[in-house]
Amino acid sequence: MHETRYHRPSSLDEAAKILSASADGRYLSGGQTLIPTMKHRLAEPTDLIDLTRLAELKGISESGGALTIGAATTHAEVASSDAVRKAIPALAALAGKIGDPAVRHKGTIGGSIANNDPGADYPAAALGLGATIHTSKRAIAADDFFKGMFTTALEDGEIVTKVSFPIPTKAAYEKFHNAASRYALTGVFVAVTKGGDVRVAVTGAGASGVFRAGGIEAALSSTFAADAIGGVAIDSSDLLSDIHGSADYRANLIKVMAERAVAAIA
What we know:
Blueprint (H helix, E strand, L loop, with lengths): L4 E3 L4 H10 L3 E4 L5 H6 L7 E4 L9 E4 L2 E5 L4 H6 L1 H6 L1 H8 L4 H6 L2 H7 L6 H8 L2 E4 L3 E3 H4 E3 L2 E2 L7 E7 L3 E8 L6 E9 L5 E6 L7 E2 L1 H9 L24 H19 L1
Parallel strand pairs: 1-3, 2-3
Antiparallel strand pairs: 4-5, 5-10, 6-7, 6-10, 8-9, 11-12, 12-13, 13-14
């Protein structure tokens, strides 16, 4: 039987020291991916370092035109937060659509973004809103953070501490979810920044994970209306194709979800 030691550090510094001293340590946030992976023996860490009770990773605040959410904040806390609902209603709505109640009360925003599952919702919000991901070492723009499926700019031992979302003029998120997991088969986050820029991020459809839909952004920048998306050609060559849907199916879903998001904003 594989032995795993459980740690509950009292600070980020202590967490980093435990990790550096371990043979194969892993940080534990909500555990929605790591624990099932361990159950299937696909991961056998020597040490689990629980970050969920660190006060420095908690909290939701608004300042300087941005909404900042601590990495250990659960999906349920984001969904029910009056501050989030007021500043970025689309983000609260997105959090409320993640998984089921059990997942929403355990999963965390930092864990979701750090894991970067190709069907996760938060990466679309981070990329769509032009967020900044703060870590134990630096600040990384969302455009530079997501590198591919389950791959980010995080270095070994680096911890996501908080995420700052610029408050948009308007935004909406629509997704077509897998009926069993409620992961996004295709999800589209549409936002208009305070500067008037249109950002459109897609999750669940890309073979390399979350990405921005440049063609839809250009169409909406010209005419911000659902009808403007109809003429946009979506290249399916870089999209996922699996038992849940073909690449061409997902290409169509990108347009449909984008149209619904724009209609919701209107």
